[in-house]
Amino acid sequence: MRSLFVVAGSAGRRRARPWPALPLLVCTAVACSSPAEPPPTPVATLLIVNGTCTAAGCGIVHVLGFPAANQPATPGGPWSLDLGTTDAREFCLTIPASATFRVIGQTSAGTSDTLTTTWTSALPLALGLVPPGVSRLQASPTTSLFVPARARGWRITLPGDSSPAPAEACGT
Predict the structure, then answer these.
(1) Where are the domains of the chain?
(2) Is the pLDDT confidence value at 17 over 90?
(3) Do the Cβ atoms of 100 and 91 come closer than 8 Å?
(4) Which of 11, 65, 84, 103 is the most exposed, fewest CB within 10 Å of its CB?
(5) Distance from first CA to last CA of the chain, Å, rounded?
(6) Is residue 117 a contact partner of residue 101, using CB atoms and an 8 Å limit?
(7) In contact, 144 and 163? CB cutoff 8 Å
(8) Mean pLDDT over residues 138-164, rounded?
(9) Tens digit of each residue's pLDDT (9 = 90 or more) over 43-85
(10) What is the 3-state secondary structure (H, E, C) of the chain?
(11) Residue 3 contacts by C-beta under 8 Å, 6 or more apart in sequence?
């Protein structure tokens, strides 16, 4: 570890004193550090069984989660959580504990107006797919609602099943 010293004295005589640098060092350390917040603990996992698979292989499945409550009216359609994409036969993904969606607009007076919507895994969610070659904005829910926090794990075949079923938590 390197020490920081402030040199004081006249041209003829120099003394190194460590104590004047201590407040500067402490202030710098405090200003440059921030408490690391751990990522939210995953509440549930979802095992996706790729319903496009044949003997020749599997197609790409891009899974979105659509919160059921508090959907703001936006020109882009309902807001969604991007849960993952795969071309594997099975894919384990983590459903986040929460998600936030912001619609930032402008009032007639010209001031900024922001609508914030928060979803948590204790609220209903439906699943949907983004078809290949289609914008995510055109995707919509294709399953019934479920509440991710009601089980540690879920399982569904997409496309195919109409509702996720509680299952053992899969490894992510």
Answers:
(1) 1-37, 44-166
(2) no
(3) no
(4) 11
(5) 39
(6) yes
(7) yes
(8) 94
(9) 799 999 999 999 999 999 999 999 998 777 777 778 899 999 9
(10) CCCCCEEEECCCCEEEECCCHHHHHHHHHHHHCCCCCCCCCCCEEEEEEECCCECCECCCEEEEEEECCCCCCCCCCCCCEEEEEECCCEEEEEECCEEEEEEEEECCCCCEEEEEEEEECCCCEEEEECCCCCCHHHCCCCCCCECHHHCCEEEEEECCCCCCEECCCCCC
(11) 18
Total residues found in the chain within this entry: 172
User: How many Å apart are CA 12 and CA 21, to the nearest integer?
Assistant: 22
CA distance 97 to 40: 6
Q: The whole model's pTM is what?
A: 0.71
